[in-house]
C-alpha cells in the first residue's frame, strides 16, 4: 500500500514516483540532499519547507508540473530567481515549480530580439546581450530573476530612455492553469499579453520571454557621487530640480546610505552616512559626461566614483551589497512630486535607519515609462514622477522587529506624499493583501480580475500578489 507523502496527504508515493519518472528534471523531496539548497531563497527571513520541488528542465516539464499540481489540489509556488522579498517562490507542504535550471538566453543580433528562459537571471541576460553590444532594459542587481522582475514591471538604469522591462517585451510562452502552453503577444492571446505585463505571476508559468534589446555599452557614463547625509535637505531639492529637467537618456536615483567598510571605499569614509547620487546615461560616453557633470557639483562630495564604467560592471556593481541569506523587508510609494515635506520625512527616517545596510532610494521615473498609456498594459501608476523605495536590509536577526517597524513607519509617512500607488516589485510581505494589489494596479484592477477568472478561475496561481478571480 502506498504511504501518504505530503503532510496534507494529497499525494502518495506511487503518484509521486509516476510524476518524477515523467519529468526530465529532478523532483526533490525533503529526503534528497539537494532539497535544502533548493528551498532556500534570497531573503533569509523566509524558511519554508515545500512537499516537493519540481526542477523543470523544459516547457514540457512545466506542463506536467502544472497538471500534477492542479489534479492533486496542491499549493503552487513558481520560482524564478527567488528574489521576491515575501518569499512567494516557496511554500509549506505544496509544490514549487522551480525554473532555476532553465536559464538559457539566445540573442538574434541582426534584429536585437532576445529569448530568455523563465529561470534566467539579469546577469544571464546581460552577459549574452553584451556580446552583441545590446541590453534589455531591466534591473540593477545581476542576481535578480528576469521572470519576477519582468512580470511586475521591471525598472533599471535604462528606464527613462526605454521604459520598463515589460515595455520591451514582445511575447511570452506561458503555461496556464489548464496546462496549455500558450504564446501571448500583440497578435496572439492579446488579453493575456496585456495581463502578464504587470500581473504576470497570476496567469501562469512563463517558460520563455522574448524581448527587444537596444544598443548600449560596452562603456557608459555613470554618476556615483557620495555626499554627506547631513546636507540632504539642500542636496535632494537640487538633485530633483536637475533631473526633472533632464533628457530621457539620464536615469538617476538618490540613495540614503552608509559607506560600506571595504574596498573600493577609502577607510576614512567607512560607515559614514551619505546621500549617494547615482546616474547612468543611455548614450555615447562623451555626450553623457557633461550631462552627469552637474550632479557632481550639487555640493562638496566626500567621494566621487563617476566616470565611464563597463555596462556589465554597472549591472553587477551592487551585487555584493545584497547577499543571499541577509534579512530584507522592502516597500515602496509612488510620488507625483518630491515636495519639501516629503524630503523632510526622508531626511528624518534616513537619520535613524536601523542598520547601515538599510537605505531609502528615490527613483526619478517618468520619461519613456510615462509615454505608454495607463490602460495599455496591466502595470499601474505610470504617471508618477518618483518612486520611493524603503529598503530595510540587515544582517543581525536581533534587529528584525526594529527594522520592519522602521520600514513600515517610513512607508506610512511616505503615504502622506504619495499618489496612492505602489510598485509591486517592492511590496514587502504583501500583508495588506487586496488593498495593496488594488493600489498597485489602480484602474486596471477590475479588468485583471475578469481575465484572472478567464485564465485561472480556481486561483491555482495564488502564491503571489494575488488578483482574485472576478465572481
Ligand atoms: C537585490 C534585489 C535587487 C532588485 N532590484 C530591482 C530593480 O533594479 N528593479 C526592479 O524593478 N526590481 C528590483 N528588485 C525587485 C524584483 O524585481 C522582485 O523581487 C522580483 O520578484 C524578483 O523576481 P525573481 O524571479 O528573482 O523572484 P521569485 O521570488 O522567483 O519570483 C517572484 C514572483 O514571480 C513569480 N514568478 C517567478 N518566476 C515566474 C515565472 N517564470 N512565471 C510566472 N511567475 C513567476 C513568483 O511566483 C513570485 O510570485 C530587486 C530585488 C532584489 C532582491
Write the layout of secondary structure elements.
Layout: H1 13-22, E1 27-28, H2 35-39, E2 52-55, H3 59-71, E3 76-79, E4 95-98, E5 105-108, E6 113-117, H4 122-130, E7 134-135, H5 146-151, H6 159-162, E8 169-175, E9 181-185, H7 190-199, E10 205-212, E11 214-215, E12 219-228, H8 232-243, E13 250-258, E14 273-281, H9 285-292, E15 303-304, E16 307-310, H10 311-316, E17 327-335, H11 340-350, E18 359-364, E19 386-394, H12 400-415, H13 434-441, H14 445-455
Parallel strand pairs: 2-4, 3-4
Antiparallel strand pairs: 1-2, 5-6, 6-10, 7-11, 8-9, 8-10, 12-14, 12-15, 12-16, 13-14, 13-18, 17-19, 18-19
Helix pairs in contact: 8-11, 11-12
Bound molecules: flavin-adenine dinucleotide.
How would you describe the overall organization of this protein?
Strands 12, 13, 14, 15, 16, 17, 18 and 19 form an 8-stranded antiparallel sheet that branches. The mean pLDDT is 96. The chain has 14 helices and 19 strands. The longest helix is centred in the last third of the chain and has 16 residues, at 400-415. A hairpin with a 4-residue loop joins strand 5 and strand 6. With 471 residues, the chain is α+β, with helices and mostly antiparallel strands. The relative contact order is 0.12. The protein binds flavin-adenine dinucleotide (FAD). The site of flavin-adenine dinucleotide has 34 residues, from strand 3, helix 5 and strand 10. Flavin-adenine dinucleotide (FAD) is lined by residues 42, 77-84, 88-89, 99, 118, 139-141, 144-145, 147-149, 151, 153-156, 200-201, 205-206, 322, 425, 463-464.
Amino acid at each position: 500500500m502506498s504511504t501518504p507523502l505530503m503532510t496534507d496527504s494529497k499525494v502518495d508515493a506511487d503518484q509521486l514516483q509516476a510524476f518524477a519518472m515523467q519529468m526530465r528534471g529532478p523532483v526533490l523531496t525533503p529526503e534528497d540532499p539537494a532539497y535544502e539548497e533548493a528551498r532556500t531563497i534570497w531573503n533569509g527571513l523566509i524558511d519554508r519547507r515545500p512537499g516537493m520541488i519540481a526542477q523543470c528542465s523544459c516547457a514540457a516539464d512545466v506542463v506536467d508540473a502544472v497538471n500534477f499540481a492542479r489534479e492533486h489540489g496542491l499549493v503552487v509556488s513558481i520560482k524564478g530567481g527567488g528574489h521576491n522579498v515575501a518569499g512567494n517562490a516557496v511554500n509549506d507542504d505544496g509544490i514549487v515549480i522551480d525554473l532555476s535550471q532553465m536559464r538559457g538566453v539566445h540573442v538574434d543580433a541582426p534584429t536585437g530580439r532576445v529569448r530568455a528562459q523563465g529561470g534566467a537571471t539579469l546577469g544571464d541576460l546581460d552577459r549574452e546581450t553584451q556580446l552583441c553590444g545590446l541590453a534589455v532594459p531591466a534591473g540593477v542587481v545581476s542576481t535578480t530573476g528576469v521572470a519576477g522582475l519582468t512580470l511586475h514591471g521591471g525598472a533599471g538604469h535604462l528606464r527613462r530612455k526605454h521604459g520598463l522591462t515589460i515595455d520591451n517585451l514582445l511575447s511570452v510562452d506561458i503555461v496556464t492553469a489548464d496546462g496549455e502552453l500558450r504564446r501571448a503577444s500583440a497578435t496572439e492571446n492579446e488579453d493575456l499579453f496585456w495581463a502578464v505585463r504587470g500581473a504576470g505571476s497570476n496567469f501562469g508559468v512563463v517558460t520563455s520571454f522574448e524581448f527587444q534589446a537596444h544598443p548600449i555599452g560596452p562603456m557608459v557614463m555613470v554618476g556615483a557621487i557620495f555626499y554627506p547625509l547631513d546636507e540632504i535637505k539642500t542636496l535632494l531639492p537640487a538633485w530633483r530640480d536637475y533631473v526633472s529637467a533632464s533628457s530621457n537618456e539620464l536615469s538617476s536615483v538618490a540613495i540614503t546610505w552608509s559607506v560600506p567598510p571595504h574596498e573600493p571605499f577609502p577607510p576614512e569614509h567607512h560607515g559614514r552616512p551619505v546621500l549617494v547620487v547615482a546616474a547612468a546615461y543611455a548614450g555615447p560616453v562623451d555626450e553623457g559626461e557633461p550631462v552627469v557633470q552637474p550632479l557632481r557639483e550639487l555640493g562638496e562630495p566626500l567621494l566621487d566614483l563617476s566616470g565611464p564604467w563597463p555596462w556589465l560592471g554597472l549591472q553587477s556593481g551592487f551585487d555584493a551589497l545584497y547577499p543571499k541569506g541577509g534579512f530584507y523587508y522592502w516597500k515602496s510609494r509612488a510620488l507625483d512630486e518630491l515636495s519639501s515635506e516629503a524630503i523632510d520625512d526622508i531626511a528624518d527616517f534616513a537619520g535613524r535607519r536601523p542598520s547601515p545596510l538599510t537605505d531609502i532610494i528615490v527613483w526619478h521615473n517618468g520619461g519613456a515609462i510615462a509615454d505608454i498609456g495607463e490602460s495599455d498594459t496591466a502595470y499601474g501608476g505610470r504617471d508618477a514622477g518618483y518612486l520611493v523605495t524603503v529598503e530595510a536590509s540587515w544582517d543581525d536577526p536581533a534587529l528584525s522587529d526594529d527594522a520592519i517597524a522602521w520600514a513600515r513607519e517610513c512607508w506610512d509617512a511616505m503615504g502622506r506624499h504619495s499618489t496612492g500607488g505602489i510598485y509591486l516589485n517592492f511590496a514587502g510581505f504583501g500583508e495588506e493583501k487586496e488593498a495593496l494589489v488594488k493600489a498597485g494596479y489602480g484602474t486596471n484592477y477590475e479588468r485583471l480580475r475578469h481575465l484572472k477568472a478567464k485564465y485561472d478561475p480556481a486561483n491555482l496561481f495564488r502564491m503571489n500578489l494575488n488578483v482574485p478571480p472576478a465572481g
